[in-house]
Write a structure and sequence with these properties.
Structural class: alpha/beta
Number of helices: 23
Shape: globular
Number of strands: 21
Radius of gyration: 29 Å
Strand order of the largest sheet: 11-12-10-13-14-9-15
Distance between the termini: 41 Å
């Protein structure tokens, strides 16, 4: 008999185990049994071919429609052309120098076909696909998994098709013995969950659809519990270390700032401001997520909270993901504060503080000055990048931390800032994101934070028109895109051109697709070509800090017509005169990232234009993504769509190791009940036993999601 931790060579043989390891990073029985089927098919039910993605390794259950043979033109040999169908769409397949297959691949036969999706003459095809025919005459040869009514279809790889994985799973299940269930017996009973061994058998070889459903439900519970236990431990750790109370001070800087505001706060800004003010007044550290659309006014909410802390004699820190954004925040905070942020300078208000910028690439003299202002407490507000959490940076009395764009930071950085309080206290923490997040996602990814959402936009924001430019099908549209940029500039406006890559680094994409377009290549091409005569400049993250700042200031001052940049402009950059954005290789960006990027235009009184340039073909899931961004500017709606279109486990980056995704079945959109119940259950367990010392099975589940080194770090935090 074999347990879950057992290595596979002894059970499957060295050759098969090596193939699984190389193709899918599967090493143990547990790895194999947690490699769940991607979907299930019933005999006679064909796979929907629409939505296949160029470059992916796909498996489809389809019927052969026609097959023909032709000679290769360039050299001796033959090509066997086959068309398979799901009844609605067709998919081309090509076999090179394998004419003998024509005898068995007869029209009308049904089978599983697996291979890498490529493009030939703008048509999707599978080249030399592996296949397993399921017709009556082949049934005796097929593995028994495919003789059942329910056919599991596994995420596969080259050389390891779904039917080979199914055979390996069958061999392992034949000898599987789960010694102890990690889930406590009382939890299983309370929630009506089957045992782990029955669930693992049911997910791979279900007796019927009901058995499959109860098995999936149990395994989803395991995933939800592992993540929620991590956050329950983090919440327990956070509240066990007190914070200093910083109640509102009548007649202080905050009141003075509110009096000089040139606009009325929205109802949402006032309500969330009151929530934050109440949190800051307690002796428990605030841990709150503030989410809202680009331009919804999160910075004003954060600044008002920072001033409440400064009024109590303590310091606030604002952490930004890039030096460009840190410098932009420091400038905008100083502008909003005016004489209230000029302490020690001529013209300062009677009650004033100082905003200090601190980044890693500052010159020695400037950095020393900023460090002194920080350690002395002269600076009430310190703005910087990750350099703020280095040991060399000392605060006089850090009471509040604002983390902007949380998705750029890991758990360690956030916790390192939390530990920067004084006298064994933690600073209050406010995390801000302009990527709207559905409630269930926030409950999982930011499980240790209370959540607030700014849904209304301040008055004066202009609409943004978004259009997809499909250059593979309509190459002339790209010329028109550059004409539109010239038209905007001729009206006195400015434009962004965004590229996925800088250009001085090797491309990270190892596939046979061309490398992503790069700033250092595109900027000179545009300046000497379609945008000749315009003032074109480049901006990217590896430029020296003073150079980046100079370019951004010049763009802000209208001295640059077109800024060719990487995603360094994704957040925080505010140039109201910029009305157009062209995103090249838009398919290389995620939905939320595209939404963030286009938020850089339409910030003034003139409507914005965003053009998504792509070579991807119509009918692919990538084009569906781009079409969705084209169709709506509602970030909350797009965030749900983004989650549905990509692998949900990937969004857990801050909570789990980079080795393997911990979420494989749990849907953060559709399994709200499971997440809510697991959250309550984990809170109850951690309240009784914060270290899980009496729950070794649950502790192991947590370490399967979070590597041990990080788990230990979370324990200490």
């Amino acid at each position: 008999m074999a347990g879950l931790r057992e290595k596979l060579p002894l059970l499957l043989g060295a050759k098969t185990a090596k193939a699984l390891s190389g193709a899918l990073d599967i090493e143990t029985v547990s790895d194999l049994l947690r490699h769940y089927p991607r979907r299930y098919a019933e005999r006679g039910e064909l796979t929907d071919i629409a939505g296949l993605e160029l470059g992916e390794h796909a498996t489809v259950l389809a019927r052969i429609e026609k097959i023909s043979k032709r000679r290769m033109k360039s050299r001796n040999g033959t090509i066997l052309d086959m068309v398979i169908t799901d009844g609605k769409r067709r998919l081309a397949c090509a076999f090179f120098n394998q004419a003998w297959r024509e005898k068995e691949l007869a029209p009308g036969k049904t089978g599983l076909f697996a291979g890498k999706v490529t493009a030939f003459r703008d048509t999707l095809q599978l080249a030399n696909p592996e296949y397993e025919l399921l017709d009556a005459e082949r049934e005796a040869e097929a593995v028994d998994n495919f003789l059942a009514e329910i056919i599991p279809v596994y995420p596969a790889a080259q050389g390891m098709p779904t039917w080979s994985i199914a055979k390996c799973v069958r061999q392992v299940l034949d000898v599987l013995e789960v010694d102890a269930d990690p889930m406590p017996a009382d939890v299983l009973k309370q929630h009506g969950l089957p045992g782990l061994e029955r669930a693992l058998r049911g997910i791979h070889r279900p007796e019927d659809w009901a058995h499959l459903e109860t098995s999936r439900h149990r395994l989803k519970w395991d995933e939800a519990m592992a993540v929620q236990l991590i956050f329950a431990q983090r919440r327990h750790s956070a509240v066990s270390r007190p914070a200093k109370a910083s109640p509102h001070t009548d007649g202080g800087l905050l009141d003075a700032f509110d009096k000089r505001l040139p606009f009325d706060l929205t109802a949402g800004q006032r309500a969330i401001g009151d929530e934050i003010a109440a949190d800051l007044a307690t002796e428990h550290p605030m841990n709150r997520l503030l989410q809202g659309e680009v331009g919804s006014g999160k910075t004003v909410v954060a600044l008002r909270a920072m001033l409440q802390i400064v009024d109590s004699g303590r310091q606030s820190a604002m952490l930004a993901p890039t030096e460009v954004l840190a410098a932009q925040h420091a400038r905008s905070l100083r502008e909003m504060l005016g004489e209230l942020g000029m302490a020690g300078e001529l013209g300062a208000a009677e009650k004033a503080t100082r905003v200090t910028l601190l980044t890693g690439s500052m010159g020695a003299k400037e950095r020393k000055k900023s460090l002194l202002e920080t350690v002395s407490g002269e600076a009430g507000i310190v703005v910087g990048t990750h350099a703020l959490i280095q040991d060399t940076v000392q605060f006089a009395d850090l009471g509040f931390v604002v983390v902007d764009e949380q998705h750029r930071f890991g758990v360690e950085q956030r916790d390192a800032l939390r530990s920067r309080g004084s006298d064994s206290t933690s600073p209050h923490v406010l995390v801000m994101t302009a990527t709207p997040i559905p409630r269930t996602v926030a409950m999982t990814v930011y499980g240790d934070l209370e959540t607030s959402a700014l849904r209304e936009m301040p008055v004066g924001r202009s609409p943004i028109k978004t259009s997809v430019v499909p250059v593979a099908e309509k190459p002339a549209w790209l010329d028109r895109a550059w004409e539109r940029v010239r038209e905007e500039v001729s009206k006195g406006h400015q434009a962004y051109v965004v590229c996925p890559r800088i250009g001085d680094e090797p491309p990270s994409d190892k596939s046979d697709k061309r490398p992503p377009l790069a700033v250092l290549d595109v900027a000179p091409e545009l300046a000497g070509g379609p945008l000749k005569g315009l003032r074109v400049a480049a901006l990217h993250g590896r430029m020296p800090a003073d150079e980046k700042d100079a370019v951004m200031q010049a763009f802000g001052a209208g001295q640059i017509d077109v800024l060719v940049a990487t995603t360094v402009v994704e957040v925080g950059v505010n140039v109201p005169n910029a009305t157009a954005m062209v995103i090249l290789d838009a398919d290389r960006f995620g939905v939320s990232q595209l939404h963030q990027l286009r938020g850089r235009v339409g910030r003034g009184s003139v409507p914005g234009l965003c053009l998504l340039v792509t070579e991807t073909l119509d009918g692919t899931s990538t084009r569906e993504r781009l079409a969705a961004v084209e169709s709506t500017t509602d970030g909350f709606e797009l965030s749900r769509l983004d989650l549905e279109l990509r692998r949900e486990g990937d969004i857990l980056g801050a909570a789990q190791s980079g080795k393997r995704s911990g979420l494989k079945l749990l849907s953060l959109l559709r399994d709200e009940d499971v997440i809510t119940e697991a959250r309550a259950q984990s809170q109850e367990i951690v309240l009784r036993d914060p270290t899980l010392s009496s729950y070794p099975g649950l502790a192991q589940m947590v370490s399967d999601v979070v590597d041990m080194e990080r788990a230990e770090y979370l324990e200490k935090s």
